[in-house]
Design goal:
InterPro entries: Tnp_DDE_dom
Organism: Candidatus Enterovibrio altilux
Pfam families: DDE_Tnp_1_5
Protein name: Mobile element protein
Distance between the termini: 17 Å
Number of helices: 2
Oligomer: single chain
Radius of gyration: 10 Å
Length: about 35
C-alpha cells in the first residue's frame, strides 16, 4: 500500500512515512508505518 501511495503522490520514502503516520493518527488508528531506513 505504501509504495502505491508513493507513486501517486511522488513522495520520498521519509515523507511518505510521515504522511501515512499522520493519516493513521487522523483516523485514530493505533497503527504506524514501517521504518524504511
Amino acid at each position: 500500500m505504501a509504495l502505491m501511495v508513493k507513486c501517486v503522490f511522488s513522495m520520498p520514502l521519509v515523507g511518505l512515512q510521515k504522511f501515512i503516520n499522520s493519516v493513521f493518527k487522523l483516523a485514530q488508528l493505533p497503527l504506524s508505518c514501517s521504518h524504511y531506513s
